[in-house]
Design brief:
Rossmann fold; binds nicotinamide-adenine-dinucleotide; alpha/beta; 7-stranded parallel β-sheet; about 40% helix
């Protein structure tokens, strides 16, 4: 196993989530010290294992004061991965203003707050990787808040790349539908759950949902020095879902 992150410090938001947990584990396996942030403390604290350089911190990424305080207290950081996110699916007419604000608040404002708070401590040569979605570019009825939030995250990532260059690279990855708990939680109990899951799988050229583990190597590559010429890029990892 390579050790691309030996001696490096990484911060991962959404660390209690399915993708976030895998990202933390992969960074630890490659030598990084990892600080995992998530609003869900139960699953996050379960990840603290003796002998692993992992610290969990309960933090709501929409809490501007809390995020700022975290940034001020942080030692230098080499890698930031913004993976915290929520999904939302409802026709526009049934999407309340509160739901719209919640989704954009976590998915875009949260990434902005964390990136802004850590900017002063991001080391020269460091990297930020933001987790957007194929929903940023592929329209589908019912996804107005989620798609808008993820498109906003792509735009924010490109602007952040321009602002943090040349010292820090910023890239954004856009996974297609993944077989994590996120879509299952959203659709459990929905009469058309099987149909929607099948449609999501069929939207991919590969005819299947992705696995969170398939997204991890791309994120670590972008976070590593191997990607030294890549910044401001939005990279699809979606089985061809958006390749039209
Ligand atoms: N699962 C998919 O199909 C899919 C597809 C494309 C993109 N994504 C994106 O990948 C990322 C990870 O998704 P996942 O599938 O692991 O989902 P997940 O629900 O397992 O993980 C998301 C994590 O974000 C955390 N979170 C939510 N609100 C927060 C807040 N206010 N402050 C801090 N943490 C908060 C949750 O507690 C959770 O642990 C998300 O940004 C998601 O939008 C997921």
């Amino acid at each position: 196993m390579s050790a691309r992150f030996e001696g490096k410090t990484a911060v991962v938001t959404g660390a209690s989530g399915d993708l976030g947990r895998l990202l933390c584990t992969a960074l630890l396996d490659e030598g990084a010290s990892v600080i995992g942030l998530d609003i869900d403390a139960t699953r996050g604290e379960q990840m603290v294992e003796a002998g692993r350089a992992f610290t969990f911190r309960q933090l709501d990424v929409t809490d501007a004061a809390g995020v700022e305080a975290f940034g001020r207290a942080c030692e230098p950081v080499d890698v930031l991965i913004n993976a915290a996110g929520v999904i939302s699916y409802a026709p526009m007419g049934e999407t309340t203003v509160e739901e719209w604000d919640r989704v954009l608040g976590i998915n875009v404002r949260g990434a902005f707050l964390v990136t802004k708070a850590l900017e002063p401590v991001l080391r020269e040569g460091g990297a930020v990787v933001n987790i957007s979605s194929s929903a940023a570019v592929r329209a589908g009825a019912g996804w107005s808040a989620y798609s808008t939030s993820k498109a906003g995250l792509v735009a924010f990532s490109k602007v952040a790349a321009a602002e943090l260059a040349p010292g820090v690279r910023v890239n954004v990855v856009c996974p297609g539908a993944l077989d994590t708990q996120m879509p299952h939680r959203l659709l459990d109990g929905h009469p058309a759950k099987d149909e929607v899951m099948t449609q999501m799988a069929q939207a991919s050229m590969l005819g299947r949902l992705g696995e969170a583990a398939e997204v991890v190597p791309l994120c670590l590559f972008l976070a590593s020095a191997e990607a030294s010429l890549i910044t401001g890029a939005s990279i699809a990892i979606d089985g061809g879902m958006t390749a039209w």
